Amino acid sequence: MTTTANRQPAPEATQRARTGLLTTSVGSFGKPDYLQKARNEYAAGRLDKAELERLTLQATKEVIELQEELGLDILVHGEMERGDMVAYFAEEFPSMHIGGLVRSYGNRYYHKPVIDGALRWEKPVTVDMWKYAQSLTSKPVKGMLTGPYTMVEWSFDEYYPSRREAVMAMAEVIRQEAEALDAAGAQYIQIDEPAVSTRFEDIALANEAMGVVTKNLKAKTITHICYGDFAPAYDELIKMPVDQFDLEMANSGYDLIDIMKRKGFNAELGLGVLDVHTHRVETVEEVVRGIKLALEVLPPEKIYVDPDCGLKTRTWEEAAAKIRVMIEAVRRVKAELGIA
């Protein structure tokens, strides 16, 4: 069981820690035009499923090749098969279905999932794609899941009498999916909980649910939480039972580093150094500064350098330009510190 009080790195992870400042990405990449067109054609009934799946695998292969070319240490499969991080799972889990359009902000709408029965896990949803992506590279590829709190918070619950009951039932479902990835050999399993930063009054519930998901895993566990006003909830947030917190930093001017200095931080940190919400490519000096701020709190073997969030809002050219800057900044800091 992974706990904040007793984290024991896997043997493989201990070996990697001799270098430190490993580089990775958070999860999504933008879909190539040919795949987005194919998804639209499939939705309109003008393309068969087999062809969509062929193009999805092609795009996944290209994402893996791009990351290897850029020199990242830990890869992601890019989420080419997913439209939305909650709806993707809702389409596969029994007792969930996709509801009508809901306005999110501005003129953006999405189909909000609905929980309409007792949640249960029927079969692996993510394992086949993870195995395919991992087969394309000798570098580790993360297993990617959406956390139980976010799955419930971003769905309509028409079955459970309370939020708590729905979240804990969802935790059992996500636990089985995580254990399937673990059994398949995933070295890293990331359980994203972006909704936590929008409702910090539920952080204890989110932590309890995450404990259910991670308790039996051998893999290194990571959670990604989007930016928010972390200060009031910091003491509870860092109790979440994962090995690594992947957090946006560049977008908020690295203000979380100051909180970590004051209150302490003992887990591993996924250090976001690239603002994914802007077309502007950061300078190497800006990223070097961010890494050095984190090094004031943690040793290099506990810092994983990555973008603030998934890169699906950026073109591949923009994403590649940003990551190249990140890789060069890490190289410079490693050279200064004598890290291989």
Individual helix count: 12
Q: Which percent range fits the helix content?
A: 40-55%
What is the strand content? Answer: 5-15%
Order of helices and strands: HEHHHEEHEHEHEHEHEHEHEH
Tally of DSSP β-strands: 10
Distance between the amino and carboxyl termini:
32 Å
Show unreliable segments: 1-17
Radius of gyration: 19 Å
Mean pLDDT: 92
Oligomer: single chain
- The rough form would be described as globular
Kindly report the spatial arrangement of strands forming the biggest sheet: 1-10-9-8-7-6-4
* Largest pleated sheet: 7 strands, parallel
Structural class category: alpha/beta
What does this structure look like?
There is one protein chain. With 340 residues, this protein is of the alpha/beta class. It contains twelve helices and ten strands. The chain has helices spanning 11-16, 33-43, 49-70, 87-90, 127-135, 148-153, 163-184, 203-214, 234-237, 255-263, 284-295, 316-337; strands spanning 22-23, 96-105, 108-115, 143-146, 156-157, 188-192, 220-225, 244-247, 268-272, 303-306. Strands 1-10-9-8-7-6-4 form a seven-stranded parallel sheet. A three-stranded mixed sheet has the order 2-3-5, with no helix packed on it. The protein is globular and about 55 Å long. Mean pLDDT is 92; it is low at 1-17.
Task: Give me a quick take on this structure.
The protein has 340 residues and is of the alpha/beta class.
